[in-house]
Amino acid sequence: MAESTKEPTSTPTTSQPKIYLAGPDVFLPNAVAHGAHLKTLCAAQNAHGLFPLDKTLTSHPPNSYSLAHAIREANMNLIKESDAVLANMTPFRGPSMDVGTAYEMGAASALGEDCCGVYA
């Protein structure tokens, strides 16, 4: 079967599951480009990827409580919008997975969503 050269759509169709892409990938130097790549991989599987950096938060001072709160709220809204969570559980800044990712997986589970972890 030949590969499709069609660009993925930016808005999901009703048949596409929405997958929240959790993980420490948001801390990569090229995080936005990496998120776009992950979303392309989702589209190739007929899914719509939701990356935590999809929403730009510019009205908060860097390293502020208000920014932390806005990030949590934006990500929780994406998790609530999603059908499932795919989480990068690769150890981050120590021997364990990213604690924010663990929180997101727990929140999604509490909402009744399917969660799947991957380890790279």
How is this structure best described in words?
The chain has 120 residues and is α/β, with parallel strands linked by helices. The chain has one domain: Rossmann fold, CATH 3.40.50. The protein is built from three helices and four strands, in the order E-H-E-H-E-H-E. The protein has helices at residues 31-44, 65-81, 99-110, and strands at 18-22, 48-50, 84-88, 114-118. Strands 2-1-3-4 form a four-stranded parallel sheet, sandwiched between helices. Strand 3 (84-88), helix 3 and strand 4 form a beta-alpha-beta unit. The two termini are 28 Å apart.
Number of structural units classed as domains: 1
Radius of gyration, whole Å: 15 Å
Name of the CATH architecture:
3-Layer(aba) Sandwich
Order of helices and strands: EHEHEHE
Largest sheet: 4 strands, parallel
What does the average pLDDT come to?
A: 88
Query: What is the beta-strand fraction?
Result: 15-25%
CATH class: Alpha Beta
Count of helical stretches: 3
Q: Please state the structural category.
A: alpha/beta
Give the helix proportion (percent range).
25-40%
CATH fold naming:
Rossmann fold
User: Terminal Cα separation, in Å?
Assistant: 28 Å
- Within the largest sheet, what's the order of strands? 2-1-3-4
Short recap of the structure:
The chain has 120 residues and is α/β, with parallel strands linked by helices. Helix content is 36%, strand content 15%. It has a single domain, classed as Rossmann fold (3-Layer(aba) Sandwich), CATH 3.40.50.450.
